TrEMBL record:
Lineage start: Bacteria, Pseudomonadati, Pseudomonadota, Alphaproteobacteria, Sphingomonadales
Protein name per Swiss-Prot or TrEMBL: ATP phosphoribosyltransferase
Gene name per UniProt: hisG
Top-level division of the source organism's lineage: Bacteria
Domain ATP phosphoribosyltransferase catalytic: from-to ranges: 53-212
EC number: 2.4.2.17
Record GO terms (molecular function): ATP phosphoribosyltransferase activity
Function according to Swiss-Prot or TrEMBL: Catalyzes the condensation of ATP and 5-phosphoribose 1-diphosphate to form N'-(5'-phosphoribosyl)-ATP (PR-ATP). Has a crucial role in the pathway because the rate of histidine biosynthesis seems to be controlled primarily by regulation of HisG enzymatic activity.
Record comment: activity regulation: Feedback inhibited by histidine.
Cofactor(s) this protein cannot do without: Mg(2+)
Pathway(s) served: Amino-acid biosynthesis; L-histidine biosynthesis; L-histidine from 5-phospho-alpha-D-ribose 1-diphosphate: step 1/9
Class in the EC hierarchy, top level: transferase
Length: 219
């Protein structure tokens, strides 16, 4: 890692990693493979990668440790609601990592929005869920869980869940069905709201132009 190079945070391993790397590759950037390391280096562009958990990407970008990041709108949105002054800016929507944050109910339930009133809802996205409920004029109790949210109704921890859905198979396997959409999400390229030094700003503009080109040709 070097301070003369632009810093970008991407997910180390998970659903966004391969496509984040693939996007950079399509933009003509060669990344030196560095198995097991927390950083990687572009060999033909002044760019370093920080390979981190997706949940940490907004923090790195907000604090300016990384000028750029690739993260899901679900993670970004939850972070931004907790730290509205963070000033992270979306530069581009990347068209991968698509999923929706949805309220799900037991399959056998005849669901109506009013059922949520006064209920308990388990989620890993408490702030996004709270905001959506407030927008709907519903008051409900949020139970925050780090994972295995879809087990909550069976365990009697909550009547409903608010969780990410892509194919819907996980919900179905747990006797649940999607009933409301809280957020549609995809991976986005983000930049810090902090000031960027001129050298990095030039590299950032160049990288952004290349990424825009990749997005346009894949549309
Ligand atoms: O280790 P790290 O913290 O970096 O990774 P993670 O385990 O927190 O995240 P990861 O790799 O699972 O997901 C990274 C990002 O991918 C998410 O923040 C979303 O932006 C996006 N994404 C896209 C998804 C899904 N699709 C998805 N289906 N993230 C999670 N899921 C999970 C969902 O939580 C549920 O458990 O998959 C299950 C549902 O999938 P279906 O197909 O059964 O509906
Ligand atoms: Zn995560």
């Amino acid at each position: 890692m070097s301070i003369d190079r632009l810093q970008m945070a991407i997910q180390k391993s998970g659903r966004l990693s391969d496509q984040s790397r693939g996007l950079l590759k399509s933009a003509g950037i060669k990344i030196q493979a560095n198995k097991g390391q927390l950083t990687a280096r572009a060999t033909n562009f002044p760019l370093d990668l920080m390979l981190v958990r997706d949940d940490d990407i907004p923090t790195f970008v907000a604090d300016g440790v990384c000028e750029l990041g690739i993260v899901g709108e679900n993670v970004l949105g939850e972070y931004a609601l907790g730290r509205p002054e963070a000033g992270i800016e979306i530069l581009a929507r990347l068209g991968f990592g698509r999923c929706s944050l949805k309220i799900a109910a037991p399959q056998e339930e005849e669901f109506d929005l009013s059922n949520l009133e006064g209920s308990r809802i388990a989620t890993s996205y408490p702030l996004l869920t709270k905001k959506w409920l407030a927008d709907q004029g519903i008051s409900a109790e949020i139970v925050t869980m780090r994972g295995a949210v879809e087990l909550a109704p069976r365990l009697g921890i909550a009547s409903y869940i608010c969780d990410l859905v892509s194919t819907g198979q996980t919900l179905e396997a747990n006797g649940l069905k999607p009933v409301q959409t809280v957020l549609e999400s995809e991976a986005v390229l983000v930049r810090t709201g902090r000031e960027i030094v001129p050298d990095h700003a030039a590299a950032l503009d160049q990288l952004k132009t290349r990424i825009d080109g990749v997005i346009q040709t894949s549309e």
